[in-house]
Amino acid sequence: MPEPEIMICPECGLDLTDRDPWGHALSHWSAILTEQNSSYEARKRQKKLIDWAVEKGTYRPPM
Amino acid sequence: MFTLVAFTESQDSAAITNIAAVADPHVRVVGDDIYVPGALPNLAGFHFCGANFTQGQIASPSLRKTVNIDVDQADLADEPGSPPNFKDLSKSPTPLDGGEAINSLMAEDAAGASRVNALLWFSDGPLAPVTGAMYSIRATNASTLGANAWTNGALTFTQTLPKGTYQVVGMRAQSAGLRAARLVFPGFSWRPGCIGCDADGDIEAPAFRHGNLGVWAEFTHDAPPTVDFFSASADTAQVVILDIIKAA
Predict the structure, then answer these.
(1) Is the pTM of the predicted complex or chain greater than 0.90?
(2) CB pairs under 8 A between A and B
(3) 20 to 30 A from B136, CA-CA: which of A27, B65, B86, B221?
(4) Record: contact B236-A41, CB cut-off 8 A
C-alpha cells in the first residue's frame, strides 16, 4: 500500500497537513488562473493544492 | 526619482572580488559593470546578501577619489532577511559620476562556491518623503520567474482602481525566493523598486512604504505598471502591494 502523500506546498514548501490548502492557495494566486494571466507551472501548482483541498473537503470554487 | 539595479554571482573567493551585474534592459550592463545613469548620479541605498558573505565593497572611479564604500552589514542568507539589512542613504545620497561604471565586490567563506547578491539604488538627489491620503492595493502575478535574473510580469489587481492618475509612494513584493522587485511604468525610463519578502510575516524595510522615498512615479488607472522580479528560485506566485496616492 503506498504511503499517503505529504501535503507540502509546491510553491513555498509549507507543510499543509493541518491547514486549508485552498485558503493557502489564495495567499499565493488569484482564485482563477488562466493561460493569459499565469504560467503553466503556476496552474499546475495551484491544481495540486485544489486537489488536496477537494480531498479534505475544504475547496470552495470561486463564484 | 530613483531606480534599482542588481548584481549576483556564485563565486569562490575569500578576498573581495567583482560579482556579475544582472542583465538589465534599462541601464547599460557590461560583465561586472553597471553604468550609472547620467540623470541619477547618486547612490541612494544598498543591500547585500549571501549565505557565506564576509565582506563587501561598492567601487567606482569617482568613489576611488575618496574611498570606495566598504560594506560590513549583509543578510547572511541567499535572500533578504526580515527585516532586511538595508543601508538607506536616500536622505543624503553618495554622489557618483553619471556615466561611470560601478561595481559590487564581495568575499565569502563557504567550503566551495556560494552565491552573493547586491542591490543598488541610484537617485537624482536626496529623496524627500511625501505625505497625503495613502491607500494600499494588492496585486498578483503568476509568471514563472527565472532564477537569478530579472523577470517581468503583468499585475492583476484585486480591486478596480477608479478612473484617474495615481502616484506610487511605496511597495511590498513577495514570492518564495524573492530578493527584489521593481516597477516598470509605461513611458518612464527608471525602475524604482524594493527589497523582496518571502513570507506573509516578513517585515519590510520601512523606507519602501508609505511615502518614505517620495513619489516613485505616476500611472493612470488604465496603464498600470508591470513588475520586474529578481528571485533566487523559479517562483510562480508573486504578490505585490502598492501604496498609492490619488493625484487626479
Answers:
(1) yes
(2) 45
(3) B86
(4) yes
